[in-house]
């Protein structure tokens, strides 16, 4: 069934269309606001192709063939979900009958002619009870189909006939969106810059149980698709939860392709960034038969922490991106507890913000301070870009004093010094300044306190001549540096996202701690720049962030003011959507879980995670199924627009089909 068929059923909102007498399964013998109890029969079950655990049922008090004459009070359908069996009053007597029968048997297999149970008793044995959750009430109003999420009233003496929906009726239920939300979704799409009518997209097909011999493979059964609204996932939070190898990565690939399709169809730019922990999105592999980068070669930019053909580097250039990289040095030095010496403390509080050239004195001091810092980076073993030179202004008296202290003649620094020349120049400047304070043309000290601290670190001596670690404290920051980059990596990535590119950060190589810090740095840039655009009264770009092993980034112990929790909690208003995948539900920050709108849950292997999940929506109904069923791609899906969880077999990502779609664009 296509979504067009589903929409047609929704428009033709008569409740009678949802009632299918051929799939009658029984009557309710008890109902309240939370639960309904149904008496069913083995024959009715067989005619309805079974009643799987967690399947949907519909209860009605009217005859669909006589709907026109039905009282207004009875024109409603109660939507139920089977959550277990129920005990009928005569069950104990029937159990005794069964035991007596078994005790009298003389063989394992006996023919019907030797049957010892009479037809009346056998008929009684075929009856059983079902316990169902009340999910809501379908009713028609103003020519549209509505679903209330509860039961408005019930009659204790009422007799409701119960049916198992198939085909169009089931498709209407699992892809139902109420009219208000449907119109709101279209408004959301327009607000996000998507043009035209944005169609819901298919994510999979209805699947109730791991054993699907009857309800999905019977020749009479129709595989029913499940659709969701694209606007549910843009500027929203989505959880993809489950054990390893149960389909989380496939789900994320499906979402990436869907977002790309929505952007193409809606003529909008939607940037996507994937934190690829295992390298499976950036690199092709045998299992998935195609990586995201292979499917969208012209729209994908890949980053890695090692120099690799086809990849951009994640590290920044410390000689060029001064402020961004200095913040990394500050963090690394403080984390290593190397900031207890006075000169190091002064250095860590130094500013490398470039002043306006109109303020010539401040600008000259900034040039000198920056050049000294770059010379110290060179001493600490940071590889320099090819042909890199430092330039700054020094008056004649300063230059002569430095030449004399160095016992060599340097060229004028304003024409450029190599880093090795700058190293010797500044060490000599320190000695010259100790002998006689170097002064500027205005008569002020030529070296400010920040620059003097840098020179002391280069010399590894403080003002008293005592040995200090000096430039050695910078060594731990070297892995964050790349001499080949000429733009701050976070800003470069943000520009790609603004252009609607798919950015993949291949984090499968490199030191784990380094990967985490660079990941956080990029996330901070994305959040801060989008927030800045928003606060200026402009519209931020649409961005979707995907993260694997999310418990490592937005763990439950993190402060909500840290980058990842802030992005997860506040990013939605800046048009940043977050899709996070993990197998450790209980390790994710509870505030993030509480604000998650969309859920895709596959197999979880322990009760602690199940109990954590059971606190949200109606996932408690699926607790037993989630811990037992390990089928790949078998998910329980709750989207923003759906009023209840839908058990779904997620479609397999088809890279070839997506390549063909892209080629037709």
Briefly say what this structure is.
This protein has about 675 residues and is an alpha/beta fold. The two termini are about 25 Å apart.
Q: How would you describe this protein?
A:
The chain has 21 helices and 21 strands. Helix 10 packs across helix 14, helix 11 crosses helix 13 and helix 16 packs across helix 17. The strands form three sheets. A twelve-stranded mixed sheet has the order 9-8-21-20-19-10-18-17-11-16-12-13. Strands 1-2-5-4-3-7 form a six-stranded antiparallel barrel. A two-stranded antiparallel ribbon has the order 14-15. About 0% of the residues have low confidence. The longest helix is centred in the last third of the chain and has 24 residues. The protein has about 675 residues and is of the alpha/beta class. It folds into three domains: about 170 residues, no CATH class; about 280 residues, 3-Layer(aba) Sandwich (Rossmann fold), CATH 3.40.50.300; about 150 residues, no CATH class. Strand 1 and strand 2 form a beta hairpin.
Find the structural class using helix and strand composition. Answer: alpha/beta
- Per the principal axes of the C-alpha atoms, what is the gross shape? elongated
User: What is the fold-level CATH name, i.e. the topology of the largest domain?
Assistant: Rossmann fold
Number of DSSP helical runs:
21
Total number of β-strand segments? 21
Q: What's the name of the CATH homologous superfamily of the largest domain? A: P-loop containing nucleotide triphosphate hydrolases
User: How many distinct domains?
Assistant: 3
Q: Specify the helix fraction band.
A: 25-40%
CATH arch. level architecture of the largest domain: 3-Layer(aba) Sandwich
Round the Cα radius of gyration to an integer and report it.
Answer: 34 Å
The fraction of residues in strands falls at 15-25%
CATH hierarchy, class of the largest domain: Alpha Beta
The side-by-side strand order for the widest beta sheet comes to 9-8-21-20-19-10-18-17-11-16-12-13
Unreliable stretches covering 5 or more consecutive residues:
6-13
Mean pLDDT: 87
Q: How far is the first residue's CA from the last residue's CA?
A: 25 Å
Largest sheet: 12 strands, mixed
């Amino acid at each position: 069934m296509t979504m067009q068929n589903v929409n047609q059923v929704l428009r033709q909102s008569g409740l009678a269309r949802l009632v299918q007498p051929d799939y009658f399964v029984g009557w309710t013998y008890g109902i309240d606001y939370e639960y309904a109890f149904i008496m069913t029969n083995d024959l009715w079950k067989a005619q309805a192709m079974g009643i799987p655990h967690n399947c949907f049922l519909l209860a009605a008090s009217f005859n669909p063939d006589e709907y026109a004459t039905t009282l207004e009070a009875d024109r409603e359908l109660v939507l139920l979900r089977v959550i277990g069996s129920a005990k009928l009053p005569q069950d104990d007597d029937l159990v005794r009958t069964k035991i007596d029968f078994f005790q009298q048997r003389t063989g394992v297999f006996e023919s019907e002619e030797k049957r010892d149970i009479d037809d009346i008793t056998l008929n009684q044995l075929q009856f059983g009870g079902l316990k169902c959750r009340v999910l809501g009430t379908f009713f028609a109003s103003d020519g549209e189909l509505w679903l209330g999420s509860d039961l408005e009233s019930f009659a204790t003496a009422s007799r409701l006939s119960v049916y198992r929906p198939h085909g169009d009726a089931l498709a209407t239920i699992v892809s139902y969106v109420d009219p208000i939300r449907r119109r709101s979704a279209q408004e959301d799409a327009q607000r996000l810059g998507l043009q035209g009518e944005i169609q819901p997209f298919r994510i999979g097909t209805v699947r109730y149980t791991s054993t699907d011999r009857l309800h999905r493979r019977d020749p009479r059964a129709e595989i029913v698709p499940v659709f969701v609204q694209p606007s549910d996932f843009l500027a929203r939070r989505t959880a993809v939860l489950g054990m390893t190898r149960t389909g989380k990565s496939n789900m994320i690939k499906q979402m990436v392709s869907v977002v790309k399709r929505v952007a193409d169809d809606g003529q909008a730019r939607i940037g996507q960034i994937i934190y690829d922990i295992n390298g499976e999105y950036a690199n092709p592999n045998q299992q998935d038969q195609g990586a995201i980068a292979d499917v969208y070669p012209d729209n994908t930019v890949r980053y890695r922490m090692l120099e690799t053909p086809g990849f951009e580097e994640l590290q920044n250039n410390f000689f060029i991106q001064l402020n961004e990289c200095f913040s990394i040095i500050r963090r690394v030095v403080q984390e290593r507890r190397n900031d207890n010496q006075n000169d190091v403390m002064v250095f860590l509080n130094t500013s490398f913000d470039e002043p306006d050239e109109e303020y010539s004195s401040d600008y000259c001091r900034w040039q000198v301070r920056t050049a000294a810092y770059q010379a110290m980076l060179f001493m600490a073993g940071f590889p320099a870009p090819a042909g890199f030179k430092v330039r700054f202004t020094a008056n004649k008296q300063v230059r002569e004093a430095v030449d004399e202290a160095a016992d060599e003649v340097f060229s004028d620094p304003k024409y450029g010094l190599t880093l090795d020349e700058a190293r010797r120049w500044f060490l000599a400047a320190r000695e010259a300044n100790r002998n006689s304070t170097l002064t500027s043309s205005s008569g002020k000290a030529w070296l400010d306190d920040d620059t003097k601290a840098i020179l002391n670190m280069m010399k590894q001596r403080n003002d008293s001549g005592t040995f200090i670690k000096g430039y050695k404290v910078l060594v731990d920051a070297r892995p964050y540096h790349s001499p080949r980059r000429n733009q701050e990596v976070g800003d470069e990535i943000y520009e790609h996202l603004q252009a609607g590119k798919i950015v993949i950060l291949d984090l499968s190589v490199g030191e784990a701690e380094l990967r985490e810090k660079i990941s956080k740095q990029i996330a901070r840039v994305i959040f801060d720049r989008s927030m800045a655009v928003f606060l200026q009264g402009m519209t931020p770009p649409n961005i979707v962030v995907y993260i694997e092993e999310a418990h490592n980034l937005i763990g439950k112990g993190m402060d909500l003011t840290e980058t990842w929790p802030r992005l997860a909690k506040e990013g939605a208003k800046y048009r940043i959507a977050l899709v996070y995948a993990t197998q450790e539900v209980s390790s994710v920050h509870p505030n993030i879980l509480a604000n998650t709108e969309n859920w895709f849950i596959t197999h979880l292997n322990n009760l602690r995670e199940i109990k954590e999940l059971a606190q949200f929506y109606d996932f408690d109904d699926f607790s037993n199924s989630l811990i037992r069923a390990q089928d790949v791609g078998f998910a329980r899906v709750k989207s923003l627009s759906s009023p209840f969880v839908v058990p779904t077999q997620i479609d397999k990502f088809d890279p070839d089909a997506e390549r063909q779609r892209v080629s037709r664009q």
